[in-house]
Amino acid sequence: MALPKILVLVLAGGAGNRLELLTENRAKPAVPFAGAYRLIDFPLSNCQHSSIADVWVSIQFHPASLSDHLANGRPWDLDRTYGGLMTLPPFRGTERGGWHTGTADSLWRQADLIRGFDADALVVVSSDAVYKLDYREVAEAHLDSSAEVTMVTTEVAADDASRYGIVQTDGENVTDYAYKPDEPATTTATNEVFVFTPGATLDRLEALADEAGEDGLEDLGSHLLPSQTRDGLARAHRFEGYWRDVGTVDAYWQAHQDFLDDEPPLDLDDARWPVHSRGGRMSAARLMSGASAERSLVSGGTHVAGRVSGSVLSPGVVVEAGAEVTDSVLLPGAHVRAGARVHRAVLDDGVTVGERATVGGDGDVTLVGRRASVEPGSTLASGARLPETD
Prior knowledge:
The protein is of the alpha/beta class. The chain has 8 helices and 31 strands.
């Protein structure tokens, strides 16, 4: 029997405003993670290991930063003559053309293309979370049900639940859905992986678009998912593994801390399910005489002569002698000069911390934008935001 025809649509066009300076000049899915990866590597690797070869990526903000990394899908075996990776930028020329104003609006604008593909199941995923999941397994379970949508769910912290779509369930049936509620009824959240029955969902989306009028469809959680839930056509697929939304600076920083544990929540090099990335050609990391690095991820091409602890160093980072970096994330090319101190901070690409300068403290995470310079001897306080420079 032929395998079901599955299409994955990766929604990679959001502005990523909650990541602040990290997305001023790059798409959110192109934000580096764990030194060697980008956020979009996780859903694309999931597609590869799920044996799904038809993957469309909806792009919008800073598309060049993402297109360059995608490399026509080669790292994930998606550079194919038929099928494979296709990017979907905003377009003009039809009534569906224009700037996407939300995830549901993005789906509506690509409806004709999706109908023409004629998939049995449409898997729609975001690209700002870290996890491993077999999309084909979820899609096949959806096809065996009578649901119009399957929502993959996970448990989140009670004080963070209002950031997500929250569901109530009776077994596998979703009995209530609330999008980013002020007072969440449960801590069971959708983890931004949805499997839709394409024809029925797009028909419903058309009707909802007519009802919404000029207000538009907005996000999937605004009209579509509540409508499917009210009609008793929503199903939950409980996900028990590690899942971390990294859409805010604090969550991004915390996710990196998760991967510094002696037993990290995901083995990114697991031979059965490695996370693939475009990568680059960098030499081995160099730890100079007198250097120390503990409980840290040190990428290729880094030069460390100081002390590093509880931190992630991306390719090309330099930590000079006498410098100290603790509990921080340094993105490619960051340079911490002699005698400087960096603590609980995220330094974007090419940031320079001058000699004897201090960045961060024991409070909120400090964020320094791309190519910014911290003056020698100065102090950038805990929780501060230093904008990028040209």
